Amino acid sequence: MANNASYQHNKIITLQKPETPMTSKPILVALDYDDKKAALNLIDQLDPEMCRLKVGKEMFTLFGPGLVKDIHERKFELFLDLKFHDIPNTVAKAVTAAAELGVWMTNVHASGGLAMMEAAKNALQPYGKDAPLLIAVTVLTSMSDEDLSLLGINVPAVEHVKRLANLTHQAGLDGVVCSAKEASILKAAFGADFSLVTPGIRPAGAAVGDQHRVMTPEDALRAGSDYLVIGRPITKAANPLSALTEIYHSITKQS
Ligand SMILES: O=c1ccn([C@@H]2O[C@H](COP(=O)(O)O)[C@@H](O)[C@H]2O)c(=O)[nH]1
Predict the structure, then answer these.
(1) How far are the Cα atoms of 111, 115, 182, 189, 215 from residue 163, in angstroms, in the given order?
(2) Where does the chain bind substrate (predicted)?
(3) Which one, of 97, 63, 60, lies nearest residue 81 by Cα?
């Protein structure tokens, strides 16, 4: 447990807000393309010193481990965002397969439960310092309080995120996926070493699309996000490279 938080009856009690210096390379570009050539064309314009890349369910289903190899050959670190959610044995094997691909980060759904997350963490032990970072999705950034209540979860999203982050921390994982709206609370509760990976990032004026809990890149970092997952504001821009460069400069200016 981070030394700046304590727990009572599974509730987080915040004691102080820690200093949160910006992680180096906080931008994770979400490559949600159905065309491998188009994705590689964008990647070939990017600098691995400026960002990391994220591949999710669409591209991995279409192009498989070969795409991971193509990305690694281009010297980018990769977040394999497959959000495993299954019984412990199956998830442990899935994260082992991700580790074999040499990815930098991978993830599971925290709602798969403590035993599932512990099994995933244990499966990575043999990889030592070469193990991917393992994080857990709390509440998808596309979901509102109303969406949760339709699932029978009758608390505000932030409360459910806190519960799931608490469980993730207990399981010994490296961090969570949450929205930047919850970042300041989680950073204060779990400390600097528990990574907060935040999708739902939208530069001012950008289309929100299906995201619900959103924040600008600058505000997200100020709130305590460690990694900003940014997809369509870059990949659907008329000029993706200049969209990324603009975001990069906006956040490096503030650090
Ligand atoms: O809660 C979550 C978890 C994952 N994602 C993923 O992040 C990107 C966001 O893309 P945008 O185009 O910037 O909306 C996408 O790959 C999602 O699968 C998320 O949005 N929210």
Answers:
(1) 10, 15, 12, 12, 22
(2) 32, 54, 81-90, 141, 202, 211, 231-232
(3) 60
What ipTM score was computed for the predicted complex, to two decimals? 0.99
| CA 54 to centroid of ligand 1, rounded, Å | 10
User: Which pLDDT tens digit goes with each residue over 24-38?
Assistant: 899 999 999 999 999
**Could you read off the pLDDT of 165-184 as tens digits, one per residue?**
999 999 999 999 999 999 99
- State the pTM of this model: 0.92
Helix ranges, 48-172 (H)? 57-73, 88-100, 114-123, 145-150, 157-170
Query: Distance between CA atoms of 162 and 230, rounded to whole angstroms?
Result: 23
Q: What end-to-end distance do the CA atoms of the chain give, in Å?
A: 28
Counting from 1 in the atom list of ligand 1, the atom nearest the Cα of 202 is 13
Run of H or E residues at 185: helix 183-190
CA atoms within 13 A on the CB side of 39: 23
| Sign of the torsion angle spanned by Cα atoms 173, 69, 63, 127 | negative
Q: Rounded CA gap, 205 and 5, in Å? A: 36
CB atoms within 10 A of CB 17: 13
The span from the CA of 115 to the CA of 92, in Å, is 10
Look-up of token digits 């990889």: 127
- Catalytic annotation on 81? yes
The annotated binding site is made up of 32, 54, 81-90, 141, 202, 211, 231-232
Residue 141 bridge partners (DSSP): none
